[in-house]
């Protein structure tokens, strides 16, 4: 009889990795090769898992974030050691702050030389520790199947987030007979998903007695796929809803109970509702400072119910009266199952409707020549019917898009919220389009942010995805310029881009159709033509340089101190 | 306010780094920290003494620690009946003329002499940090050449005098 160990097939770490990915249902990897990951790339060579070759690791990881956001599945990233790994840092931090599930594989120098400052060595595990949900360095090839399984489990359960798995080169080439399948056993990680019944009852009691209740819905609603439950709950009890920036799409943009976005560039109606409500029910939002403004002035008279899957978010920024640690969908289902009489919100809704009609989002066209960025966003909204997947960077164009593109669908909004990453929108659009090949994907980017990751035009050229890139070109770092105008006495220090490439020629160099538009009429014609085409396109949309995002809550001020509110 | 917090963690390389990194990131000030293996293989225990501003900060600290994948259990034992010990090694200048005087000081503290040379004596003392502070203060006038302290190790007593105050955690 032969020894059992000699019967089992020995596989390389790289092959085990690929097999584990297949077992996880991974359909594509975003990455960039290099010395330390060559064994893994070699294993990929003969394998059907699709690899998307970005032109910079930052492009790869933002694409994976876009993919994760619209597919709801973990985005998978592969990069080499050292500079490859450090180029991922921005995307990892971005995914951490926006709770996006990513599993990031980084190559590492061989275990025999770790710690010797070897060629392309960087201690990526220490570097990424504060910006990951968890991270690993694989020290034995036998551990690889277990670690990969744990990594996907951690990234995509509970509050989603990025997980880094660092694989030294000799682990990728090392041989093992370790089996792929193994149960996940993490005694220190057991997210609570079912709400506490007593807390649900307390919430119901508070809501029943409320006169001015308000729901603040964040990205947790989208992550938990709880949008239909949210709408059902709001409609059943006639409770108005406001969204955080990342929560947009949680309720249809044109729903009667929707007050618009809240926060720094939120609507007057939403922000005053937060100030005036007597019960604030936060579902899956983390009370970010861009949302709350000055905490002393935030929901001063409200009892706060906070539903969040991450217990550490509850009470972190805003004291909570009724904490509910749960998955948003499970909490809403539990709430819907409770019989509630009341609240009577008739008067409250009347007041909010009055505010909505009297203080809508608006802008003035008087004495202005050329395209207003708000008009451009509204045009994109009209031509896409509110159903396109929209990605953005950070800044003015992002806020105008959040304000004027009314999102109908829950998974159509991909933006860098927490970290505010310039250069995010364009690669994220590529990832989103790969996840949803049949949907219209529009990257609305600023001229400055686009220049941070525009090398991915090459990826777009290669894939011929029908992504439309609309550059809201105001020849400046718009939001920086706006703050300098408002808070730094118009000292435009380094915020005006006097020299720019010819974006049309640039796109043409990548064999991508490109247009420049300077009037609204031209814009309408060009957008329509581009949106109907099944080819990628870039539109350099020249917008007014000095247009500002209003209304606004100045930094340090409370939500009741909005500036730029105009009554109709 | 000063809190004594114990965490039970999975003993993997980098866990201490992960926990102290978390405290640094969240701006918690660690006064002392001690780590060592427990009776269970693969499980270690950390004891921190941390200064926090208020109860909310404390709750946040406990929750953030609990969130770490390698952390199995977090306990704030400050208000419980507990045993708490710290070890200090103190090297004191002690010429033969003052030696017996120094001994008379260290004796009530049950400090043991663990090394001696012509003009220097090294004491070992264990106890609560306040006791060690007191001894250090008394020995200072003679000249402390070197001092090292282990950081606090602690756990709760088997029998609690009164029911423990309610934990802040909402879980």
Automatic annotation (TrEMBL), chain B:
InterPro entries: Acetalactate_synth_ssu, Acetolactate_synth/TF_NikR_C, Acetolactate_synth_ssu_C, ACT-like_dom_sf, ACT_dom, AHAS_ACT, AHAS_small-like_ACT. Pfam families: ACT_AHAS_ss, ALS_ss_C. Its EC number is 2.2.1.6. GO terms for biological process: isoleucine biosynthetic process; L-valine biosynthetic process. Residues 4-79 form the ACT domain. It comes from the Bacteria. Pathway: Amino-acid biosynthesis; L-valine biosynthesis; L-valine from pyruvate: step 1/4; Amino-acid biosynthesis; L-isoleucine biosynthesis; L-isoleucine from 2-oxobutanoate: step 1/4. It is an enzyme of class 2 (transferase). It catalyses: 2 pyruvate + H(+) = (2S)-2-acetolactate + CO2. One of its GO terms (molecular function) is acetolactate synthase activity. Keywords: Amino-acid biosynthesis, Branched-chain amino acid biosynthesis, Transferase. GO terms for cellular component: cytosol. Belongs to the acetolactate synthase small subunit family. Dimer of large and small chains. Catalyzes the conversion of 2 pyruvate molecules into acetolactate in the first common step of the biosynthetic pathway of the branched-amino acids such as leucine, isoleucine, and valine. This is Acetolactate synthase small subunit.
